[in-house]
Amino acid sequence: MPAAPFTRTPSVREQRSDLILAAVMFVGAVLSAALSTVAEIYGDTRAEPWTALVYAVAVTVPLGVRRRWPGPVAVAVCVAYFLAISFQVPEIYVGNIAMFVSLYTVGAWMNSRRAAMIVRVSIIVGMFVWLIITMYRQAIEEADKAEVAAGLLSPYLAFMLIQLLLNVLYFGGAYYFGERSWHAAQERQVLEQRTAELEREREVTAAQAVALDRVRIARELHDVVAHHVSVMGVQAGAARLVIDQDAEKSKSILTGIEGSARDAIHELRQLLETLRSPGSEAPDAASTVTLDDIRSLVEASVEAGLPTDYAVIGEPVAVPSVVAVNLYRITQESLTNARRHAGVGATADVRVRYDDGGVEVEVVNTGRAVAVLRPGLGQLGMRERAAASGGTLEVTPRPSGGLRVRARVPLGGTVPQTGSAPLAGPAPLPGTTPLPDSARLPGTPPQTPQTDQLTETSATS
Fold this sequence. Notes:
alpha+beta; about 60% helix
């Protein structure tokens, strides 16, 4: 949208100051007329005293509305001044000031710049034509009185040239200062608009920062609470089923519940300490987990009753902490969803892949078939984490049941980790049941943008 043209509108305070200026100028004009009469500035030629009063009113009263109607005021003041000089009204000083102010006001306050230029140029040209004619007539009269032709360097001509120079400075100054005032006001308005825009942008940026912090906190709380509570829920259910038949097994399961609760409290305390510390970093950046800690997630998943296979493929490389945290949380959420929704007898497979282009985490689980896809906070958080790391996330329902979650983050300039040996193939954890080849989904094509918008499944939280 194009910006609105700049206009100036006088405020109430400015209009009040114009009225005060007109009153002061009127008093000055009356005093100047009285003193000029006594001083006989026009010699023996005397105008009627009332003409000076009329002239004082005509040349000063219009200044009271000079900002509201600058063009008419300038014309009125100049006409009054022209008539006063023509009829030799004994007052010229206040009239000069009034005419300067009126010309300045046209340049400073008249919104139509073309009209402002026409008014000022017309007045200036008219005054100079009148001045030149007057000077010529007086030069002829002086030459006749002296019975000689006025030379180029005669005293009278020198005096007239001085008057001409003074008028050039007088009218040029009025024109210049009026233009400068207009442009200064225009620049001031632009500066005020930019200041207001910056203030609005600052408020929007602050609101966005608060919203992003709330989203990060909500995502972190969801990951911590959903993971540990779901593990404790599954373990508590298993303990209830075997408590009468196998007390030792029940104790082991309850010990796992206790450990999960302790871990949840530790992570929540760490998150709260981060939030309470002034100038602390975001919760994600405060975390110290790495991709190697995914093994502990797999172990916890096995203890919770979901047989999970774990493998690292490729040569491990150094991964930025933020990327590691996000991939860790994505794996955590995927295993949590598998435990909650896959059903009895489900298994899972977690693979961390390193290649020349980046790092990838893939979580595949068997179980119930997912027929209807719908939004869920869990997948929303995973997508946000993948996007925050500059990566992508794919969630694909498997035809034979379960889901396949793959998060990939491109890396640049990574270096091999010291002391890390590549693993040639899957390394099942003790007590786990490896997935058969039919349960894996190698070469599954990536989702289209349309499918990606509908990957929030009923099998996610």
